[in-house]
Amino acid sequence: MLSNYAFVGIFFLISLSFPVIPLLLASLLRPKRPTPVKLSTYECGLEAIGEIWVQFKVQYYAYALAFVIFDVEVAFLYPWAVAFKQLGLFALVEMAIFLLILTFGLAYAWRKGALEWV
Question: What sign results for the dihedral spanned by CA atoms 9, 11, 14, 17?
Answer without folding.
Answer: negative
